[in-house]
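Students often ask why inverse folding is considered easier than folding. One informal answer: many sequences map to the same fold, so there is more than one right answer. In these notes we will look at a single instance of the problem. The structure comes first.
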């Protein structure tokens, strides 16, 4: 396959193309020259083998058409890879807003490979004996349903013979298609499909013999029919095999082959009727029709373990079946059984007289079971989705065998878990991506457990009960004194009941679903907070371009809209402004934006979800808007509206334009800064140092308001001691123990596969607890961008306070702050309490990752510590550390904590309300 220009070009040249609108004349000339040289050296195929929009950009570069290339790059930033298609027989690419762009045929012409088909299964169900598949299928960048509606079809194709069966594909609405497309230009709602395979057709497929029939769809498109196999989901019925038995003894497995949806017809030699354990032996009984060929032996294999037992006839089978029995010793199966939560899954095969190894399908009335082995271990007689026998040795698992819901929206899970295993354990609900945890109460009695889950009010280990945020939440049992999640035992569903899922139920505010992954792993998933006409990039674009601007034409309301850290918290300076307005009794409505993480919000305000119609209406019509982060390019303040940017930190690490030239700089973001900051009537600064840096780095054209940060007034409030007492009580902090708060920043080079940032935890928490646990507690506050579970939580020393609404409250109860390069150090300096700096990666962070504005080694108001041992020692000797750094601390406060008189909030509120209908006399 030919290499493309994008592959052949250097990283520097590719970066210039990416940021072409912001590049210099010299960089533009370098890009165009490099593109021409590559094209000359490698030929036209290096250009034409690129995806369509990339092909256009590289073509314009080779031609030196800088102005056109500038327009195309900006167009693609809005919606990468999206374009319009013209021509029914000979399709050509058109770019929205750039229809007059002159392109030669070889560049604009679209090949079938340029228009890939997405075909996704979303549900599998049975209507009586009919099989029903639903999903969506569309050709990329061709959202309009073809006028040749009858031309849409589905095909089942036999894997060996190639024989095809054409099925009718009915068109249905499926908004999931538009959401899943991830783009904002096209609506694919009308590309949903329903395929019904009748019971008669299923019998016909079975009558044609064993084999696999794969499902694909055909869609009319430019120049012909576009076909693609239908893909499975990763969870639920559309992601797991299931089987049905037919009257003639054959079996239909509705499932997947090589990630494609398929029906597999199987005609088993024999089936496994039972699998029992007695006297240290596993006894496996097969049955086959009398007179039919029967298997000769059963083999069990895992890794280098290979066991085989002959099948010996059993007498007394008056029902027309011949039964045979194989026997295995439990000791042999468990001989290499690992310890802990690891397990072994054995593949069971029936061995024919000719030596062939066949699957071991179970009968309709087969009962799965579990049998104790050594302490804490069990042998599971299990089954898989296609209905084949599986044997597994594993840690004893809690298995759900009953699921009910209550009228109040509570999910009740009941199941079996031997008393000796359940003793001393707790139940944890963990998010599959965020790794956030909830600790749930559990009832244990007579080898059974009951867990009650209220998704609208789930308790945290440290903090208030909160609704479950969107995503999948998995259940585990954990030793009550466990240090981390490494020994967690997953809660699974009894195999006989997997087809009871999905289970859907309604809470007080929204619906929830119980479903499964990995065949029997239960999860709970709250429905998304956005309605179908708000969800996804396409509908968000419509809301911003149409609905938001429609609302801007309506009268302003006397309301204050608060947006703190993207809706992630009720916190920071917006919270201080809110509380000041409430204290003054200002006659306005208070509206807080809340993101999908569902943080705690004030009860005295109206709470709206980010991205909803209600949210856009509030941004368009609230007279006052108070934010501490950027809103978005779509937002434009209207006449009469006051928009206040309080920001959220004093910069130690480099920001904005000051990152130019580094690997972390984003020229497009930097170029957009002037527009971003024109949205605001004024930008708050905490001190003169920040005023100078932010004005330059963020291209702020108006004078900044150097009032001090409202959030830091808390350190000077007359009721701060009473407030600290309330915080201690709410968290349940033990009396008499010193409180150490650890609040590190995030690292751009520490990412999960999900693109969330990892918790780069370098403190040896076990050693710290051993040394400090008698008279200290450690509160760990993860940065909002960081996700990961914290070990040691719930054992009396480590407290995960990430979900506590406002870090300012935590500052009040902290005797010592541990941080690194976070702006927390500038805020906490107002307290005058000691600070320690765990800067284990100082050189890397300073010289390679972000860069710092001043020499932290000489100006830090506390020691820079490299190892966990040094850090623990410094906490123990903090009085000596405080004395050693007293002069540096005083200078630091003089440099970064003025103004610091406790009146910052009043100044900001006075300026926000000035000359408006709610103006008051300015604070003195």
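Output (designed amino acids):
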């Amino acid at each position: 396959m030919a290499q493309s220009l994008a592959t052949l070009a250097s990283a520097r040249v590719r970066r210039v193309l990416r940021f072409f609108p912001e590049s210099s004349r010299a960089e533009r000339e370098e890009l165009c020259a490099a593109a021409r040289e590559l094209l000359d050296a490698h030929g036209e195929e290096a250009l034409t083998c690129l995806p369509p929009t990339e092909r256009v950009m590289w073509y314009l570069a080779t031609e030196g058409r800088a102005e056109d290339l500038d327009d195309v790059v900006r167009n693609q930033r809005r919606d990468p890879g999206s374009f319009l298609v013209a021509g029914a027989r000979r399709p050509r690419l058109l770019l929205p807003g750039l229809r007059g762009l002159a392109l030669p045929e070889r560049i604009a012409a679209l090949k079938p490979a340029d228009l890939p088909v997405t075909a996704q299964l979303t549900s599998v169900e049975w209507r009586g004996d009919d099989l029903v598949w639903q999903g969506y299928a569309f050709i990329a960048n061709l959202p309009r349903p073809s006028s040749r509606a009858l031309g849409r079809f589905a095909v089942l194709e036999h894997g060996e013979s190639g024989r095809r069966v054409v099925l009718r594909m009915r068109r249905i609405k499926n908004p999931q298609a538009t959401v899943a497309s991830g783009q904002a230009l096209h609506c694919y709602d009308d590309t949903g499909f329903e395929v019904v395979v009748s019971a008669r057709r299923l019998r016909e497929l079975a009558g044609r013999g064993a084999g696999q029939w794969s499902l694909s769809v055909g869609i009319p498109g430019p120049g012909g029919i576009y076909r693609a196999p239908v893909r499975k989901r990763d969870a639920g019925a559309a992601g797991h095999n299931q089987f049905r038995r037919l009257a003639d003894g054959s079996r239909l497995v509705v499932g997947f082959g090589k990630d494609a949806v398929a029906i597999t017809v199987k005609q088993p030699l024999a089936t496994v009727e039972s699998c029992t354990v007695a006297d240290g032996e596993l006894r496996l009984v097969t049955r086959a029709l009398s007179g039919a060929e029967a298997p000769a032996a059963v083999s069990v294999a895992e890794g280098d373990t290979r066991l085989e037992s002959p099948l010996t006839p059993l007498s007394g089978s008056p029902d027309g079946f011949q039964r045979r029995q194989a026997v295995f010793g439990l000791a042999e199966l468990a001989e290499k059984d690992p310890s802990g939560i690891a397990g072994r899954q054995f593949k069971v095969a029936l061995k024919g007289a000719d030596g062939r190894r066949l699957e071991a399908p179970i009968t309709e009335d087969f009962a799965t079971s579990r049998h104790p082995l050594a302490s804490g271990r069990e042998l599971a007689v299990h089954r898989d989705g296609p209905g084949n026998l599986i044997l597994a040795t594993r840690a004893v698992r809690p298995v759900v065998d009953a699921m009910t819901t209550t009228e109040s929206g509570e999910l009740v899970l009941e199941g079996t878990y031997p008393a000796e295993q359940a003793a001393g354990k707790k139940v944890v609900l963990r998010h599959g991506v965020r790794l956030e945890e909830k600790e749930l109460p559990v009832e244990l009695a007579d080898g059974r457990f009951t867990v009650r889950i209220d998704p609208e009010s789930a308790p945290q280990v440290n903090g208030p009960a909160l609704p479950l945020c969107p995503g999948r939440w998995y259940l585990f049992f954990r030793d009550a004194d466990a240090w981390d999640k490494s020994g967690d035992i997953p809660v699974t569903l009894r195999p006989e009941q997997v087809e009871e899922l999905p289970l859907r139920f309604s809470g007080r505010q929204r619906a929830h679903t119980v479903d499964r992954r990995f065949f029997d792993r239960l999860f709970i998933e709250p429905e998304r907070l956005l309605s179908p006409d708000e969800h996804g990039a396409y509908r968000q674009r419509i809301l911003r371009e149409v609905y938001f601007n429609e609302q801007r034409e309506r009268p302003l309301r006397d309301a204050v809209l608060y947006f703190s850290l993207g809706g992630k918290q009720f916190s920071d300076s917006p919270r201080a402004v809110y509380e000041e307005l409430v204290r003054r009794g200002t006659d306005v409505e208070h509206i807080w934006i809340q993101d999908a993480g569902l943080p705690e919000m004030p009860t005295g305000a109206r709470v709206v979800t980010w991205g909803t119609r209600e949210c856009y209406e509030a941004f368009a019509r609230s007279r006052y808007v108070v934010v501490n982060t950027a809103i978005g390019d779509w937002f434009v303040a209207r006449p009469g509206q006051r928009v206040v940017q309080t920001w959220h930190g004093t910069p130690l690490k480099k920001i904005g334009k000051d990152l130019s030239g580094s690997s972390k700089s984003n020229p497009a973001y930097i170029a957009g800064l002037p527009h971003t900051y024109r949205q605001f009537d004024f930008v708050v600064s905490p001190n003169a140092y920040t005023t100078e840096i932010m004005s330059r780095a963020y291209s702020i054209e108006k004078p900044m308001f150097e009032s001090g940060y409202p959030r830091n007034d808390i350190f000077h409030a007359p009721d701060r001691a009473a407030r600290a007492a309330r915080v201690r009580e709410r968290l349940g902090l033990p009396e008499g123990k010193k409180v150490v708060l650890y609040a590190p920043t995030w690292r751009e080079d520490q990412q999960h596969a999900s693109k969330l940032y990892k918790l780069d935890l370098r403190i040896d928490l076990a050693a710290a607890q051993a040394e400090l646990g008698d008279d200290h507690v450690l509160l760990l506050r993860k940065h909002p961008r960081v996700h990961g579970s914290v070990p040691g939580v719930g054992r009396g020393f480590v407290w995960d306070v990430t979900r506590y609404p406002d870090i300012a409250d935590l500052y009040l109860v902290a005797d010592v702050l541990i941080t690194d390069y976070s702006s927390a150090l500038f805020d906490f300096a107002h307290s005058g309490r000691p600070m320690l700096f765990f800067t284990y990666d100082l050189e890397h962070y300073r010289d390679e990752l972000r860069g710092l504005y001043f020499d932290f080694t000489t100006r830090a108001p506390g020691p820079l510590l490299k190892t966990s041992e040094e850090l623990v020692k410094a906490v123990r000797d903090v009085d000596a550390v405080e004395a050693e750094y007293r002069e540096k601390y005083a200078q630091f406060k003089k440099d970064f904590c003025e103004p610091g008189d406790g009146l910052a909030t009043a100044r900001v509120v006075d300026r926000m309300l000035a000359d408006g209908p709610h103006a008051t006399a300015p604070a003195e």
